[in-house]
Design goal:
This protein has 10 helices and 18 strands. By secondary structure, it is of the alpha+beta class. It binds FE2/S2 (inorganic) cluster (FES) and fe (ii) ion.
Length: 453
């Protein structure tokens, strides 16, 4: 098949230009081939610690994790940790998780709820707004040392659509100006009314960017994940947004165009139909019509279960994955029933390791006849009510993260790519238009590394 991608990308949504699903204008990011050392060199990693991570807005948590005053969650990146805590007035503040006395971590748990923070080392106390409440045996300190009442050091914190971000840099633009996505894009899914029902953090043998690259395109689907071909189109719609943001719309419920038989319904399509109450035995259409039938059924279910926010989502959004890249290190697989929030967290010292942090969030529907789609891969017995926030499942390196077959395939793939990138025989990645999001991401990264931002 020959595709003139400049004029005729194979996915045509016919969406009006102001619609959130409209194809975005192309961005010319050139054809430079970056030096592959960015994937393994300590020097490049050091530049990222100096020029990238402290200066960007980083996804630190989600609002449903801290509903009440005093609720906190800890976000860790490299050697930095942050406490993100709900205030009395409902706002959210964030602090370095470090005691001003002798640098002990003030919070030792991943999350919790407190009236005040007490450092375990010598018992200094801090209010939830970070101010110093009490110094143990204060009379034994020279007054000059503690005259400024050292509290927890605050960092910038803001949230949008249920996603909480922090920024270590005082000069970065406001979050709303920095997020490259149009207004409503995030909000329409009402993530703030979902709950984390599973949280897995696994360690992979690769640079964090090798991970990002693999998750930013569906070009590899037919080769690494052939099992998806019966129910997923791998020619995604790729869109580039300002500030390194991007998304791909991956049509679900359809057979890949690479499969010759577009009539016979795939067993997994049948499964998806059943999940939304369509009986495949009486369904009159072909495989081509399944996606639209599922959209109609989901629309009706949205009304039946009182899910008003479905009204803000297009038909295509009801079936498809809007995989959205939040520069630099987040991708969210956005679906009406729930979202997969993936963070690619760099290892603090090893450029060839990263943590794949995956939060699954779902919208709770208080009706026993409702269920979330099976492809969300939630283990049997997962509490979907939002009443218990599961702890993070930490999965060591070389242990499969139990996130399903597709992820297992990616773990192996990404490690092999990481090894290959170090070969003297490799010149650097050659990105196609199907990998335009990858190029867009690296181009933005370079602006930070080269001092343009
Ligand atoms: S280090 Fe926190 S009280 Fe001493
Ligand atoms: Fe993959």
């Amino acid at each position: 098949m020959s595709v003139n991608y400049k004029v005729e990308w194979p996915m045509t949504l016919n969406a009006p230009a102001d619609s959130l699903e409209a194809k975005q204008p192309p961005v010319d990011n050139g054809v430079d081939v970056p030096d592959p050392s960015r994937y393994y060199s300590r020097e490049f990693m050091q530049k990222e610690w100096e020029r990238l991570w402290p200066r960007v807005w980083l996804l630190a948590g989600v609002t449903p994790d801290i509903p009440e005053a005093g609720d906190y969650t800890v976000f860790e990146i490299g050697h930095e940790e942050f406490i993100v805590v709900r205030q009395e007035d409902g706002s959210i503040k964030a602090f370095y998780n470090v005691c001003p006395h002798r640098a002990n971590r003030v919070c030792m748990n991943e999350r919790g709820s407190v009236a005040r923070f007490t450092c375990a080392f010598h018992g200094w106390q801090f209010g939830c707004d970070g101010h110093l409440e009490k110094i143990t045996d204060e009379a034994t300190f020279d007054r000059r040392l503690v005259a400024d009442r050292p509290g927890l050091k605050e960092v910038r914190c803001d949230h949008v659509g249920g996603l909480i971000f922090i920024n270590m840099d005082g000069r970065a633009p406001a979050l709303c100006d920095w997020i490259g996505l149009p207004r409503g894009y995030i909000e329409n899914y009402e993530i703030d009314r979902m709950h984390v029902v599973r949280h897995v953090r696994s360690e992979w043998r690769a640079n964090w960017k090798t991970g990002i690259d693999a998750f930013y395109e569906t070009y590899h689907l037919p080769h690494i994940h052939p099992q998806t071909q019966g129910v997923m189109e791998d020619f995604s719609q790729y869109d580039l947004y300002p500030n390194g943001f991007s998304r791909m719309i991956v049509p679900i419920g359809v057979k890949s165009h690479r499969i010759a038989d577009q009539e016979a319904i795939d067993p997994y399509q049948k499964y998806m139909m059943q999940e939304v109450g369509i009986d495949p035995a009486t369904f009159k259409g072909s495989a081509r019509e399944v996606r639209e039938a599922i959209q109609k059924a989901k629309r009706a279910r949205g009304r039946k279960f009182g899910l008003d926010y479905y009204d803000k989502l297009t038909d295509a959004q009801l079936t498809d994955s809007w995989a959205t890249g939040y520069f630099p290190n987040v991708q969210i697989g956005m679906h009406p029933e729930g979202v997969f929030i993936m963070r690619f967290l760099p290892h603090p010292t090893d450029p060839e390791r990263f943590y794949y942090d995956n939060m699954t969030m779902v919208r709770h529907v208080d009706d026993p006849s409702y269920s979330v789609p099976g492809w969300m891969g939630l283990p049997e017995g997962t509490d979907l009510s939002g009443e218990t926030r599961p702890n993070i499942e930490h999965v060591p390196v070389d242990v499969k993260p139990n996130l399903g077959e597709v992820l297992d395939q990616d773990v192996e793939l990404v490690a092999a790519v990481q090894r290959g990138q170090k070969s003297r025989g490799f010149r650097g990645p050659l990105w196609s238009e199907q990998e335009q999001r990858v190029r867009h991401f690296h181009r933005e990264l370079d602006r930070y590394i080269n001092g343009e931002k």
